[in-house]
Automatic annotation (TrEMBL):
<dbReference type="Pfam" id="PF04075">
    <property type="entry name" value="F420H2_quin_red"/>
</dbReference>
<protein>
    <recommendedName>
        <fullName>Deazaflavin-dependent oxidoreductase, nitroreductase family</fullName>
    </recommendedName>
</protein>
<comment type="similarity">
    <text>Belongs to the F420H(2)-dependent quinone reductase family.</text>
</comment>
<dbReference type="InterPro" id="IPR012349">
    <property type="entry name" value="Split_barrel_FMN-bd"/>
</dbReference>
<dbReference type="InterPro" id="IPR004378">
    <property type="entry name" value="F420H2_quin_Rdtase"/>
</dbReference>
<dbReference type="GO" id="GO:0070967">
    <property type="term" value="F:coenzyme F420 binding"/>
</dbReference>
<dbReference type="GO" id="GO:0005886">
    <property type="term" value="C:plasma membrane"/>
</dbReference>
<dbReference type="GO" id="GO:0016491">
    <property type="term" value="F:oxidoreductase activity"/>
</dbReference>
Amino acid sequence: MSSYTALLRRLGRRRWFATLGRLLTPLDRRLYRLTGGRWSVIGRHELPSLLLTTTGRKSGLPRTQPLLYATDGDDYVVVGSNWGQAHHPAWSANLLAQPAARVTLGDREIDVRATLLTGAERDRMWQGLQRIWPGYDAYAARAEHREIRLFRLSPRPWDGTNA
């Protein structure tokens, strides 16, 4: 791991970093698309990142969020930390309402089905995700009245509708 990525992982625990991250998310999403995932607003780093596109549970419109992820076999696992805010991120509620989604990795798009992780499986994946982004511990402490949601995103073949 580069010293730059190590620095980012240390800074990720700081409240100001989370605030800045929330503010820069729209720009990060755009930069990811423009560079095929090679750059983000925090520069070129070694953190595994993807774009997750869900269907808005109220609007029915596509909603895209840049996220860090871990792999588990062929699946991707993402964290609904919402930077440690008191409420769950909207994209996680969208997945609960409609588990069909799309992942963008670089210039590849993959249709996925989301499953909320619970129990021992959630605990196992939480440990791995904390190794990728140690700031999740601080986010969980700040979001003290909710359990942070973890989702498994399993690739699925295109069925013509992908509903």
